[in-house]
């Protein structure tokens, strides 16, 4: 007999067809509402033969996201039915429609208890699966003794399901772990892989939750090693073979359990060293399955107290992963190497070339990990070659990695710089390439570095002046350049510098460059502040009157500037020309050498006394630090003049 979508009870396939052929959301809702009404009406009839068929349709409706809670009591009724076909759909419905928050879930506790003792293993299995899926803490407490009994059953099919059910119970009610410990221990003697897998998962759960249980299970390490050896050297077994590896799922589970048992324990670690070496050398790494087992082996080796040779072997496996075509495998290798670079630095260092090559990887996340790892591998012995690679990377790296790369290069350069000149050159290189992506404290830190390297003042000011002529878009570079020109302009104008080829620079040239910065739309107010102060401080013993006038006219323009900081600066500097001309030379003295606050100053953490903090701030704004003068109004203004 052919049913239409309207009829009270269409078969499941027909309902699915009607729902799928609906052209609009509205039409689909109509079909489902009609079906749900028919199902409801049939649920009310006590003796209908199509109960399981109706509940199956309701579960399909539930999977589409429509409300199906009115089927909960029907699930309870069907679970209590003696017929397997009805029980099966009833239990499936319970797993989908019930959870521990619903009172109806308590109503099935008794049915589950009865079915756990059923003569049919498939009915027992339904009850076990349901309890493992949605058993509340209360149900778990009531039924735990039943599960413990089933763990000792003779039937492997039931033992496997009971072990996984016990895992759920232990997660729900921690103190029931004690109950399952003896049975879990005896399951390791099983030959059936499903039961072994369940046993290993259960033991892992028990050990992670209780330190005493962990100590007790350390005695099982030799048994686990034997099971694992059997898997590694076993011949081909069609039911367990996955791509040439014998039951990789069980191998991975055992390796994870060994990792927990061997952590911080010499004896347990010694008992598994040989096995781990055997797995590491005998597992085929050409397929993903083999790599999964190898990766777990590596993690186990690195977590336990393993021999140094074994650790090197583990790092070498990760090194091989870095050459894999699969970027997921490259990525996990990076993450693992990052974790151990502190403890096994030399072993990781051997793979430096491969790691640096990963900086060129197309994948953004692999690139990010390669950057982290490359920065961690910089040391005093390889700083020059690693910096070459990192600076090359910086010039072409994606914008989102630039700030991280610049910051890492600065830290490494400060830690391992072979000379001050190299250090300054490296930082200037970064500022030229990625000046817009560096942190705010970079400018004061570099200024401090330059100030302290007094023999390099001439070299640095020439280099920065040339950089300023080439590009004024990188704000941090321009700020440092302006500061240096203000401080060491006389060295620049002198023109003789052993480090670079002599260049004849006139005071007008320098003023032109500073004026370009002041007028450029790319310059931020802070950069203009640096340039204004540099203009003011630019002096030579034979300063021309014309240039003094030019400086005064540049400064006075900013007396009516919209930016309050610049305006205040300009007004005070103008006052120095007019009212306090006799003090100008003293006020514009060269900055004293700045003392470093603390060894780790690159990150801008200031731990010195407040006075040093004020100095750093002044430097940051390019403001001259004043020598002791009699207090008067203008000086006080200038001294307070810090943003």
TrEMBL record:
Domain Clathrin/coatomer adaptor adaptin-like N-terminal: 28-580
UniProt keyword terms in alphabetical order: Cytoplasmic vesicle, Golgi apparatus, Membrane, Protein transport, Transport
Keyword presence, Membrane: yes
Main location: membrane
GO biological process, one term: intracellular protein transport
Subcellular location as annotated: Cytoplasmic vesicle membrane; Endomembrane system; Golgi apparatus
Keyword match Nucleus: no
A Pfam family it matches: Adaptin_N
One GO CC term, this protein: AP-1 adaptor complex
Gene3D superfamilies the UniProt entry points to: Leucine-rich Repeat Variant
Membrane-protein topology: Peripheral membrane protein
InterPro entries xrefs: Adaptor_Complx_Large_Subunit (IPR050840), AP1_complex_gsu (IPR017107), ARM-like (IPR011989), ARM-type_fold (IPR016024), Clathrin/coatomer_adapt-like_N (IPR002553)
PANTHER family membership: ADAPTIN, ALPHA/GAMMA/EPSILON (PTHR22780)
Family of the protein in this entry: Belongs to the adaptor complexes large subunit family.
Protein name per the record: AP-1 complex subunit gamma
Organism: Dicentrarchus labrax
UniProt lineage: Eukaryota, Metazoa, Chordata, Craniata, Vertebrata
């Amino acid at each position: 007999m052919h049913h239409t979508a309207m009829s009270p009870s269409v078969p499941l396939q027909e309902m699915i067809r009607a729902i799928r052929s609906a052209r609009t959301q509205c039409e689909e809702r109509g079909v489902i509402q009609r079906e749900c009404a028919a199902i409801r009406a049939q649920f009310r009839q006590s003796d209908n033969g199509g109960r399981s068929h109706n509940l199956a349709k309701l579960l399909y409706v539930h999977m589409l996201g429509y409300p199906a809670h009115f089927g909960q009591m029907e699930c309870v009724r069907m679970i209590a039915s003696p017929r397997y076909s009805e029980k099966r759909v009833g239990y499936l419905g319970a797993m989908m429609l019930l959870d521990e928050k619903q009172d109806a879930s308590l109503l099935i506790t008794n049915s589950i208890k009865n079915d756990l003792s059923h003569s049919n293993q498939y009915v027992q299995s339904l009850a076990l699966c349901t309890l493992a899926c949605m058993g509340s803490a209360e149900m778990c407490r009531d039924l735990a003794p039943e599960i413990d009994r089933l763990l000792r059953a003779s039937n492997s099919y039931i033992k496997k399901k009971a072990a996984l059910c016990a895992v759920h119970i232990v997660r729900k009610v921690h103190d029931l772990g004690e109950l399952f410990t003896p049975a879990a221990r005896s399951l390791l003697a099983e030959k059936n892989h499903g039961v072994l897998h369940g046993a290993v998962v259960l033991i892992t759960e028990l050990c992670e939750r209780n330190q005493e249980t962990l100590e007790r299970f350390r005695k099982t390490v030799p048994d686990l090693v034997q099971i694992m050896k059997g898997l590694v050297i076993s011949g081909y077994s069609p039911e367990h073979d996955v791509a040439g590896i014998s039951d990789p799922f069980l191998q991975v589970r055992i390796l994870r359990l060994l990792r927990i048992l061997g952590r911080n324990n010499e004896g347990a670690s010694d008992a598994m060293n040989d096995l781990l070496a055997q797995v590491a050398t005998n597992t085929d790494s050409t397929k993903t399955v083999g790599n999964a087992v190898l990766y777990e082996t590596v993690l186990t080796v690195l977590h336990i107290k393993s021999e140094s040779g074994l650790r090197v072997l583990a790092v070498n496996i990760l090194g091989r992963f870095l050459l894999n075509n699969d970027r997921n495998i490259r990525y996990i290798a990076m993450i693992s190497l990052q974790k151990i670079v502190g403890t096994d630095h030399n072993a990781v260092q051997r793979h430096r070339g491969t790691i640096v090559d990963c900086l060129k990887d197309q994948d953004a996340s692999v690139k990010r990990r390669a950057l982290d790892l490359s920065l961690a591998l910089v040391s005093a012995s390889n700083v020059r070659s690693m910096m070459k690679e990192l600076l090359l990377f910086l010039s072409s790296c994606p914008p989102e990695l630039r700030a991280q790369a610049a910051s890492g290069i600065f830290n490494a350069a400060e830690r391992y710089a072979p000379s001050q000149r190299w250090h300054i050159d490296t930082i200037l290189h970064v500022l030229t390439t990625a000046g817009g992506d560096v942190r705010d404290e970079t400018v004061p830190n570099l200024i401090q570095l330059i100030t302290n390297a007094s023999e390099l003042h001439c070299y640095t000011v020439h280099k920065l002046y040339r950089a300023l002529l080439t590009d004024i878009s990188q704000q941090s570079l321009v700020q440092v350049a302006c500061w240096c020109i203000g401080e060491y302009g006389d060295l620049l104008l002198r023109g003789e510098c052993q480090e670079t080829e002599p260049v004849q620079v006139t005071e007008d040239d320098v003023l032109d460059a500073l004026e370009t910065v002041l007028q450029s739309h790319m310059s931020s107010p802070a950069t203009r502040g640096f340039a204004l102060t540099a203009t003011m401080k630019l002096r030579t013993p034979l300063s021309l009157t014309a240039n003094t006038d030019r400086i005064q006219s540049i400064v006075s323009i900013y007396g009516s500037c919209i930016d309050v900081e610049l305006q205040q600066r300009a007004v005070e500097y103008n006052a120095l020309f007019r009212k306090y001309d006799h003090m100008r030379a003293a006020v514009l003295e060269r900055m004293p050498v700045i003392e470093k606050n603390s060894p780790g100053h690159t990150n801008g953490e200031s731990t010195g006394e407040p006075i040093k903090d004020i100095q750093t701030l002044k430097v940051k704004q390019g403001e001259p630090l004043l020598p002791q003068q009699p207090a008067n109004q203008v000086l006080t203004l200038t001294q307070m003049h810090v943003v």
